[in-house]
Amino acid sequence: MTSSAPAASPVGLSPSALGRIAAVVTVSIWTAFIVIARATADPARGGTLLPLDVVYVRLWGAALVLLPWGWWMTRAARQQADPLAPGRGSLGGVSPLPWAITWRIGLFGGLLYATLAYSGFVFAPAAHASVLLPGSLPLWTTLLALLLLGERISWGRALGLGLIVCGDALVGGASLLNAFDGSGVWRGDVLFVLAAMCWSTYSVLVRRFALDAVQATIGITSFAFVMYVPAYTLGCLMGWLPGQVLHAPWREILFQMGFQGVGSVVISGIGFTKMIQYYGPVRSTMITAVVPGLSALCAALFLGEPLPWNVLAGLALVSGGIVFGVRKVAQSPAAAAPVLVPDVAPEKP
Fold first, then answer.
1. Closest by alpha carbon to 36, among 336, 298, 220?
2. What is the structure's pLDDT at 2?
3. CA angle (3, 217, 347) in 5-degree steps
């Protein structure tokens, strides 16, 4: 049984054209996120903003778009609800979700993911992030779904996940073996793995509570903004934190707000939702499987980072594991649940 094709867009583009545009935009932003985050956080490149500063401006950029949107959604829902029923939303109405859900998804998908991921770029190169961030998300999401949701794993999907584990081990294992050489790369790898686990937890919570993608994105942004931005602002003003955001050039701040906030959170979120709408979850996952390899190649091209054999092999195994696992799920009627990917209710990488 097939669903009816989506109607043409108001701008006159066909559904297939919108799907292709969404795929290109999403993959481009996810790829650029890894390269730009590494270029910003790498101490050798002399960037002004520290990782926690980038989290700060990321939240500002996303909040300027999403918090008014959330307030409008909550206000409309309250006007249509039964006057005797409890009010919807939380955090003063800027989150359209109840507090019990907002703080759970906001903690993992908003605060912890961003702080861990950006901090990892201080120590490890972009190629490592390519493998251990988007590349390992299906692994951690599947394992958490198995534990928390009781989902079963087919043999084909298990084999795909095994390839991902081998790819992660080739990259992260080499860093751990050299843990005492003074480079500190292993610290970044550990932070990337923890960030991927946090985003996977967020993805499983989205599945568990059956959340709308837009509402979930607004919810994690509103929680992170309210909990992080006032405290970080006070800490920088009082000199309690070493943040440079109050002294950084406005051009750099506006760029990071635009890309990390509006681009990575808002636009890539809408883009991935459109991909799901026109391609479905299986084909969308296969499309995003190009991100690890593409981001590693872009880092080598634009940042001059090396690509040793273990990283290349890890990229091949991870990308192949994603594609193989998704194809097996698509072919097996018993494995009805789609592979969960970074942006089931997307934020960005």
1. 298
2. 42
3. 90
- Ranges of the chain with pLDDT below 70: 1-12, 46, 81-87, 174-183, 276, 280-283, 285-286, 325-349
Compute, in degrees rounded to 10, the torsion defined by CA atoms 158, 161, 167, 173.
-90
Q: How far apart are CA 147 and CA 151, in angstroms?
A: 8
CB-based contacts of 158, cutoff 8 Å, min separation 6: none
- 8 Å CB contact between 207 and 344: yes
Taking the CA of residue 281 as centre, how many other CA atoms within 13 Å lie in the half-sphere pointing to its CB?
A: 16
Q: Within a 10 A sphere around the Cβ of 61, how many other Cβ atoms?
A: 25
The pLDDT, as a whole number, for residue 206 is 85
Query: Which pLDDT does position 61 carry in this prediction?
Result: 96
Alpha helices (H) in the chain, listed in sequence order: 15-41, 51-80, 99-106, 113-120, 126-132, 137-148, 155-177, 185-209, 213-237, 250-256, 268-288, 291-302, 309-331
Domain map of the chain by residue range?
A: 15-79+87-331
Look up the pTM and report it: 0.83
The interaxial angle of helices 213-237 and 268-288, nearest 10 deg, is 110
- Compute CA distances 293 → 152, 155, 158, 320, 327, whole Å: 29, 25, 22, 11, 19
Burial of 265 (0-12, 13-18, 19+ CB in 10 A): buried
The rounded radius of gyration (Å) of the Cα atoms in the chain is 20
Q: What is the length of the chain?
A: 349
